[in-house]
Specification:
Blueprint: H1 4-14, H2 21-31, E1 35-39, H3 47-50, E2 53-57, H4 61-67, H5 72-79, E3 87-91, E4 106-111, H6 117-120, E5 125-133, H7 139-144, E6 149-158, E7 161-165, H8 183-189, E8 201-206
Bound molecules: S-adenosylmethionine.
Length: 208
């Protein structure tokens, strides 16, 4: 039956209480975000419930079936909370390959558990736009040493509930060990550095 690809969303995100819907609401309300690009999304289509314009870049075959499923539009329409039609674009490709015509096109770049997206996909984020990055694969560390990004806030999590904080931002990204955090070092270790103080995710503003 044709509904199978869409069941993946329930399986991976609803049943695991991992949709992160409240986080996307917080980002929309605080930064006025209307468009987002999500490289390495798998089938995490939740941003489309909140932002009218969303683009996904993902090479997993199951995700291709999901995003190209004829029922996806109706599925998103049933969950979205904005009045206009959802505009969803999907690229079945490696996010390191250039996507033409998308430069500086988005208010939000989403990087969650999928590699160095802050680096490879920066070009798609508007100057002044927001990068949401966690540090599972070291991407928040990468953004923290990139002069094009400034830390704007952190995301703190309690259970599955998120909140944003702008307090004491200078205390984040101080390594526990005396190491020099460089791009080459992060590329080598492929994970986040251990810091004195850490958050669930980090919000960086693209400044240049
Ligand atoms: C652990 S999942 C995370 C999914 C989602 N971001 C989330 O937070 O639930 C990582 C996903 O990133 C995708 N991915 C990793 N490297 C990629 C690349 N270079 N281009 C496109 N997708 C990639 C994988 O196929 C996988 O679906």
């Amino acid at each position: 039956m044709a509904a199978k690809p869409l069941d993946l969303y329930q399986e991976h995100f609803v049943h695991k209480d991992f949709e992160r819907l409240d986080l996307f609401h917080l980002l929309r309300d605080k930064y006025g975000i209307r468009s987002a690009i999500y490289p390495g999304s798998f089938v995490h289509v939740t941003p489309s419930f909140v932002f009218p314009v969303t683009t996904y870049v993902e090479m997993d075959k199951r995700a291709k079936k999901f995003f190209e499923h004829p029922g996806l539009g109706a599925f998103v329409a049933a969950h979205k909370d904005y009045p206009e039609d959802a505009r969803i674009t999907y690229y079945a490709q490696d996010y390191q390959e250039e996507i033409e015509g998308e430069d500086e096109g988005y208010d939000l770049l989403i990087s969650q558990y999928a590699g160095f997206i802050s680096k490879h996909c920066k070009r798609y984020l508007k100057i002044g736009g927001i990068l949401l990055a966690n540090n599972s694969h070291g991407d928040a560390s990468m953004a923290s040493i990139d002069a094009d990004y400034h830390l704007a806030a952190v995301v703190l999590k309690s259970g599955s509930k998120h909140r944003l904080s702008e307090r004491n931002l200078g205390a984040y990204f101080v390594p526990k060990k005396a190491i020099e955090v460089t791009e080459a070092y992060l590329e080598k270790i492929q994970k986040g550095v251990g810091y004195d103080k850490s958050a669930s995710s980090y919000l960086f503003r693209r400044v240049s």
